[in-house]
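Input/output pair, single chain:
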Amino acid sequence: MEIEKLLDVGIRAGRMLLESGAEVYRVEETMIRICTGLACTDEVDSYVTSTGIMLSIGYNGQVFSKISRIKNRNVNLHCVARINALSRNIQIQDYSLEEVEQQLNKIEKEPKYSVWMTTLFGGIGAAGFALFFDGGMLEIVISFAIGILIRLLVSLLSMMKMNDFINNVIASMLLAILSIFSKKVFLVIDVNVVVISGIMLLIPGLAFTNAIRDTIAGDYLSGVSRVMETLVCACAIALGVMVVFSVV
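Output:
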């Protein structure tokens, strides 16, 4: 058994999970399942935070370890579900390292939702929130249009790999500008409904949910770091809207 290769496979699976929005306890458990399912190891231990992964394997009286830094995070629950299922299949079926690598390659190359698809549903989401907040038909239509523009901007900023704080400030500023412009064109709309509906697209709901789940699971460091991440995002959104409304 090539322990170094096993470490690489375990770390890769953990990195893909964490970058796709998985909880810390799930990443740790999945890496342990993969390593114990592929080799008769003396001991496997993992430690994961929201920005880093550490995996240690004991084999023939020696300890092998590897660390990986996580810089990019997004939401891909399909990837999380596929790797989670793979780790459980490894423990009940005979898999080789090469087969697991092939499976990970296949999962990594699976097509994600296109920019146009996420843009369309961004508009639908904003329109849905406008309806939820008792907006009229005009508020719903305007929220739909603004939601599409916000998603396009967020996708563009993500491709440019800009800082998340800056991304949220710029996106919230555009939201506020478009909302004020809509109010000047359509005097009867409720600008508050339009702004709130657009803001809901920028709020990191998955990160906040994972923060609660990590804290309940006893991963306090990751829980606190994810809470701080959501607070920073909230401050960025509030700053962008505040700047525009205070100037215009």
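The first helix runs from residue 3 to 19. The chain has a mean pLDDT of 87.
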